[in-house]
Amino acid sequence: MRGVATLVGLSALALAAWPGFNRVEAAPAMAIDADVRDEFRSQMIMPLALGGDNGRRMAATTAVIPLASAPERPRLDLVATLTQGDSFDRMLRRAGVSEIEASQIAGMIGNAIDISDIKSGTQVDITLGRRLVAGEPRPLDALSFRARFDLQLAVERRDGQLLLDPRPIMVDATPLRIRGTVGGSLYRSARAAGAPASSVQQFLRVIGTELSLDREISSKDEFDLIVDYKRAATGEIEVGDLLYAAIVRNGEPRKRLMRWGPEGRYFEASGVGEQREGLMRPVPGAISSRYGMRRHPILGYRRMHGGLDFRAGHGTPIYAATDGRVDYAGRNGSYGNYVRINHAGNLGTGYAHMSRIAVRRGENVRRGQVIGYVGSTGLSTGPHLHYEMYRGGQKIDPASVRFVTRAQLTGKELADFRAQLDLLQLVEPGAALASLAPDPDAVEEPVREIDRLENRQQVR
Predict the structure, then answer these.
(1) What does the H/E/C string look like for the chain?
(2) Which range has the top average pLDDT, 41-50, 206-215, 433-442?
(3) How far is CA 42 from CA 31, 342, 437, in A?
């Protein structure tokens, strides 16, 4: 009986703890945003009804019957880029234009401008029409690109013939003149006045060759700069070189420099060229042996070392230290391949142990021109440059000499220079920023919304 009572008691306890049969509470509904909704749609039949607007494609089933031939798009719009070292017709062929039409178009454009003047990176809009024969290239329907800052070129097919349509672009070439007070920082003041960063850097470089930016220019001085500046009627801006740089003190110009000549040198208002100080380093390597007495590495005894030795690898270009005339170029005993250049002021420089000489005797050379290449000819332990300097034919320490060169304009060239300087002085500050008059030849065509959204294929 005791066992029965225990069984009954435990059974009653179990029944008392029996769970109820109420509804099970579900998890809260998840938040569904646009991305999750598109993911759900991609797994349903709905994308087929919507034309696959989310970019997903469902796998084909056995009910799908492949077409014998799929219809092609009636036209293709491409953007081809002219890369560096590429030719115009090769770029067109890469975009899908036939070889015959590519050569024809390149010839048409070559008759209008010099194709070599087209800058690398120029983008060409190309429209290819419907293919006439299966397997043949598509015919070109239209082509257009910016050939120059002031010229747009287009090729269109009219009545079955390709015709070139030059479209000149109105350009305002008024130079940009900016004046202002130097203040605490010449660079910041010029930038705040609206000068382009590249032009301010040029201004500091040019003025810095004539005046000390820290000691000779005060905060109350004025800066005056004129920049080559072009604006197209289509909205583009092209900033060129610095044309004029001046520092004004108490209303009077303290220093005036203007860019002149094919080399782009800067000359003072008097016609004197910018000051060029110091010798150009003949090679970029460090100095391994200086001028003076030393123990010769091959002969083994002490003797005078009449120049500077520069460390440099075999074949490194050697540059002329400054302008001059080649007095000797050839083999010269222990010097090996040797070049000697005579300069102004009864000075000369010598370059020894070259592997190869790049100039001839009697040739005029400019500062920085390559005159040969580093080697180890003659009495040498390894590739390096032995560099010497002479005054009146006698060797001197090259480290003790600094060259200062200035060009001087004379005659008709000086008159032309001053006439151009007077014209620049007539430019009003900020005149280049005035609003441009609308181009009467420019006609804006309405743009369809489908054309706005269309993504053209890029051809590289």
Answers:
(1) CHHHHHHHHHHHHHHHCCCCCCCCCCCCCCCCCHHHHHHHHHCCCHHHHCCCCCCCCCCCCCCCCCCCCCCCCCCEEEEEECCCCCCHHHHHHHCCCCHHHHHHHHHHHHHHCCHHHCCCCCEEEEEECCCCCCCCCCCEEEEEEEEECCEEEEEEEECCEEEEEEEECCEECCCEEEEEECCCCHHHHHHHCCCCHHHHHHHHHHHHCCCCCCCCCCCCCEEEEEEEEEEECCCCEEEEEEEEEEEEECCEEEEEEEEECCCCEEEECCCEECCEECCCCCCCCCEEECCEEEECCCCCCEEEECCEEEECCCCCEEECCCCEEEEEEEECHHHCEEEEEEEHHHEEEEEEEEEEECCCCCCEECCCCEEEEEECCCCCCCCEEEEEEEECCEEECHHHCCCEECCECCHHHHHHHHHHHHHHHCCCCCHHHCCCCCCCCCCCCCCCHHHHHCCCEEEC
(2) 206-215
(3) 18, 81, 53
8: its two tokens? 């009954």
Among the listed residues 131, 142, 140, the one whose alpha carbon sits nearest the alpha carbon of residue 70:
131
Residue range 134-161: average pLDDT?
A: 88
Report how far residue 377's alpha carbon sits from residue 275's, in angstroms, rounded to the nearest whole number: 37
Least confident of 13-22, 146-155, 275-284, 335-344: 275-284
Q: Which CATH number fits domain 176-275+426-433: 1.10.510.10, 1.10.3210.10, 3.10.450.350, 3.90.226.10?
A: 3.10.450.350
Nearest of 25, 24, 7, 23 to residue 15 by alpha carbon: 7
Structure tokens at 381: 């332990």
- Band the pLDDT of 460: cuts 50, 70, 90: very low
Distances (CA, A) of 174 to 87, 228, 273, 435: 34, 8, 25, 12
User: What's the topology of domain 76-168?
Assistant: Nuclear Transport Factor 2; Chain: A, (3.10.450)
What is the identity of the amino acid at 397?
D
Q: Tell me if 76-168 shares its fold with 176-275+426-433.
A: yes
Domain boundaries, the chain: 76-168, 176-275+426-433, 287-404
Domain 287-404 classification at class level? mainly beta
Are 273 and 267 contacting, i.e. CB atoms less than 8 angstroms apart?
A: yes
Cα–Cα dist 356/284, whole Å? 18
250: left (phi over 0), alpha (psi -120 to 50) or beta: left
Residue appearing with tokens 């004197």: 272
The residues pairing with 374 across neighbouring beta strands, listed in sequence order, are 354
